Amino acid sequence: MNPVNYLYLAALLFTIGAAGVLIRRNAIVVFMCVELMLNACNLAFVAFSRMHGNLDGQIIAFFTMVVAAAEVVVGLAIIVSLFRSRHSASVDDASLMKL
Amino acid sequence: MSADLATATLAAYSTSSGEAVQFWVLGTVAVIGALCTVLMKKAVHSALCLAGTMIVLAVFYLANGAYFLGIVQIVVYTGAIMMLFLFVVMLVGVTAADSLKETIKGQRWWAAVCGLGFGVLLVAGIGQAALTEFNGLGAANAAHGGNVEGIAALIFTKYVFAFEITGALLITAAVGAMVLTHRERTEKARTQRELAEQRVREGTHVPPLPAPGVYARHNAVDIAGLLPDGTPAELTVMQTLRKRGQIRDVSAEALADLKALEQSSEERLGRDRDEEEATR
Amino acid sequence: MDNLIALLVAAPLLGAAVLLCGGRRLDKTGHWLGTLLAGLSFVIGAVLFADMVGKGAEDRALHQRLFSWVPVEGFQADIAFQLDQLSMTFVLLITGVGTLIHVYSIGYMEHDERRRRFFGYLNLFLAAMLLLVLADNYLLLYFGWEGVGLASYLLIGFWQHKPSAATAAKKAFLVNRVGDMGLSIAIMLMFTTFGTFAFGPVLSSTGESSEGMMTAIGLMLLLAACGKSAQVPLQSWLGDAMEGPTPVSALIHAATMVTAGVYLIVRSADIFNAAPDAQLAVTVVGAVTLLFGAIVGCAKDDIKKALAGSTMSQIGYMILAAGLGPIGYAFAIMHLVTHGFFKAGLFLGAGSVMHGMNDEVDMRKYGGLRKYMPVTFVTFGLGYLAIIGFPGLSGFFSKDKIIEAAFAKGGTEGWILGGVALLGAAITAYYMTRVMLLTFFGEKRWQPAPDPDKAPGVEPGIEVHPGEMPHPHESPRSMTIPMILLAVGSVGAGAFFGIGDRFVKWLEPVTKFEHGHPPIGAAAITSATVAVMVIGVTVAYLQYGRRPVPVVAPRGSLLTRAARRDLLQDDFNHIVLVRGGEHLTRSLVYVDHTLVDGVVNGTAASVGGLSGRLRKLQNGYARSYAVSMFGGTAVLIAATLLMRAV
Fold first, then answer.
1. Where in the cell is it found (chain A) (predicted)?
2. Which of B53, B89, B88 is nearest to B74 (CA)?
């Protein structure tokens, strides 16, 4: 098997995650889809790391995880406060920025 | 030396057939998990599917020689972040199922076009890229005596600034989350005594509010008590449920039951009467 | 002595300020204050005159500079006065006649509850008129010019509760604006040509500029004179201006303000001397107006309107004389002064008659008043004799000189102008005799007083009982004395000025008199003048003296009917100016609505429509924006791949 297949898998997962972001209305699910995209990227980084034979790709993936953790914390806090004020977790309900 | 050989095998242009089998089986699982994440109606199911996909990815990291990341993926991502997701899902309401019907005109169509185009382009890009060399991680992992040591060496030398900054980022995120979710109480909470005194002063509802439910069958908190004429008194249900519109009305049930009872007894009496007449 | 000049203007100005701002507490005494200040102004004028007479002819001009009015670099205007012989003549006429009319108004306006205001306006008029004739530059003259226009407007519309008076005031103001525009354009032209508008520098350097420019300035000045002096084509306002109280008609619309045009032309003599075409235009305007006014005067039954036509005609004489150049300037001013006397006297007499006849103005309802109003009859009669040019009275001397000067113009022009002037003299005699006969002779044709509700033209303040027959009576002394004094002026002024060319010599330093040489002898012209006068009187006598006069005017010939309608002047203005203006504005509005608005609104609508479509992109849904981002990323990747492929 050619290890490039990992990259194809990463691309597929990323696209699925992106489509989820576009399709789903529940903010939590949207957020999960974003995580899926991040993970797909991580997979690609790890595969690249193996390809090039150095660990820098893994370091990037590691930092991505850290940043994702921080992002999840803040994002979920936002969702919670949004839900508190609107009693809804739908991203379409927060559509006040329009004419 | 045999370990070196093993890593050298890992670095080969093609992989072992064991890894190939693992890739195709787990890759399918990962894709199915991802699709389920997107398509499941309930957020809980989505979260569980995503957790499955992440575990599969952790296995792939291990297979790719990223031992540290593989473990971190399981512990931090699947273990911590996904649990945080589940917490929030529980907080928001685990039972609420989303409608997958699209409300924005043309959104699904555009999403399909963009997604397909994007996927095709990515695949084309990867296919076009000159990915002929495949060095493997053997030498890199061995340089500092292992994968974890190698990563540690990089983090604390080359990437030490970025590492410190991510520390600051995490602290900021923690503070931010607290700020976002914390609500300051602007006035002192009133004691029960003060509340009682206020009730007496205002003269409305001097006694405590009536308890929900009056029949033993239905003393659940979401069921209104009945007034003497049989109509439900909404006052007996707590305010939160009232506002959410989650009062269950069982008075009709009870009346229907009663009616059914009457009807059945009527039928029985009628049958008895018929029988009597027949015997006569 | 120089410092007294400003006082001439200041006295009536103070009176106007005090009377108009003083409020009701001056109601009892205000008219005395106004009259006193007018008299004071006259006394100052007389003192200055005495001083002037005592000097040599060339040293007589006085000059007083008060302060710099508009001190802008290259544009200097001073509040400065110039008192030369020409201005002196006007000062005496304005303050003299003005004071008499103030006195007359005390009696005439006795019952009007707004008498104080009336006197305030009169004083304001005096101040503005004095400013006009005393100014030493055209800008200050323009200030006075507008000031008299304002005072005229206020006084014509003094009884503004009458719609006709309010309309007449507006009409006078609007028509005057046309002339004022001409004056302002003339001043602008002067400024661009000479860089100044002071009389001295402008008038002494007329030769340095082109004749075309002088003609332009002259024509603009003529337009201004036409507006203010009610000359054709801007004559239409004067007849309606008779809606004002009669003293106003006498002072402003007969003796002084309407002659400001003549003053302007004579004052700008150097400009006209350098522009023969403009001079010709002036004479044509004068000749046309003198016939126009005379014909209108023949047809009017309203005594004041008949006199207004006469005024127009007499000013036509003056303008004609002023257009003749140095041979006519002095006679124009001389006729102006004598006319000031006799026309003011005639108007005051008319006012006295109306006063006694319940404010009836229709001469056909007068008749036989000479027995009831002897003083009025005599003074009016003397004014009448003066205006028709009865030998020995003032009009004879001044008008005869103008006719002579017109003949002296020479060539065909001279014959035509002289003939017109002679014809005018005949018509003057005709219509004035008509007025005289209808008013004071014949049998009584008095009618009961009209119901004031049905006839809103009745002057207020005088008690009129509907249906009551008038009781003609002589007016109070405050009214008769000014009439007597003016009658004395009408009789004597001409002989005083004319015999020995006294007036001509007096004005000579200003107007540079030249002796005209008529193609026929002066004696022949004088006899012709007297002859046509006699013819006019005779015709009028045959028509109105011998036969009974119907109370209701007969239909009359086409000319008569046209003349009753002021020779269709208003119809002409309405059709040509009003209708034309309406059509012009309508077409402009149409263009504005379709073309301009179409382009503007079309642009706005297309931009708005486009924005409305673009706005749909901004729907507020984060997911829509995400699609855009995602699509953008895809496009970027495609571009990258494409670049690599290339």
1. Cell membrane; Membrane
2. B53
Instruction: Decide if C634 and B118 are in contact by the 8 Å CB cutoff.
Output: yes
Closest CA to B94 of B102, B85, B107: B85
Is residue C606 within a helix (H) or strand (E), and if so which, with residue range? helix C597-615
- Chain-wide mean pLDDT for chain C? 88
Predicted confidence (pLDDT) per residue in C310-337, tens digit = 999 999 999 999 999 888 899 999 999 9
pLDDT of the residue at C454: 47
Q: Are C618 and A99 in contact (CB under 8 A)?
A: yes
- CATH 2.60.40.1120 given to domain A4-86: no
B136 close to A (CB below 8 A):
yes
Which chains lie within 8 Å of chain A at 3 or more CB pairs, if any? B, C
Q: What's the Cα-to-Cα distance from C546 to each of B216, C443, C445, C464, rounded to whole Å?
A: 132, 11, 15, 33
User: What is the per-residue pLDDT across B145-173, written as a single tens digit (0 to 9) for each?
Assistant: 888 898 999 999 989 999 999 999 999 99
CB of C479 closer than 8 Å to CB of C384? no
Asked if B27 lies within 8 A of A5 by C-beta distance, the reply is yes
C353: left (phi over 0), alpha (psi -120 to 50) or beta: alpha
* pLDDT tens per residue across span C523-534: 888 999 999 999
Predicted confidence (pLDDT) per residue in C448-483, tens digit: 766 555 444 444 444 555 667 778 888 888 889 999
Q: Rounded to two decimals, what is the model's pTM?
A: 0.63
Nearby residues of C7 by Cβ (< 8 Å), 6 or more positions away? C41, C44
Nearest by Cα to A49 from B130, B11, B5:
B11
Give, in order, the Cα–Cα distances in Å from C37 to each of C31, C100, C119, C269.
Answer: 10, 12, 11, 33
Closest CB to C630 among A18, A92, A96: A18
* Banded model confidence at residue B215, pLDDT cuts 50, 70, 90: low
Q: Are C339 and C395 in contact (CB under 8 A)?
A: yes
Chain B contacts in chain A segment 69-88 (CB below 8 A):
69-74, 76-81, 83
Distances (CA, A) of C588 to C231, C488, C497, C591, C593: 32, 58, 57, 5, 8
User: d(Cα A39, Cα A55) in Å, to the nearest integer?
Assistant: 18
For chain A, the domains span 4-86
CA atoms within 13 A on the CB side of C112: 20
Q: Where does residue B173 fall: left (phi above 0), alpha (psi -120 to 50 degrees), or beta otherwise? A: alpha
ipTM above 0.90, yes or no: yes
Buried b (16+ CB within 10 A) or exposed e, A53-75: bbbbbbbbbbbbbbebbbbbbbb
Return the closest-CA partner of residue C184 out of C233, C146, C214.
C146
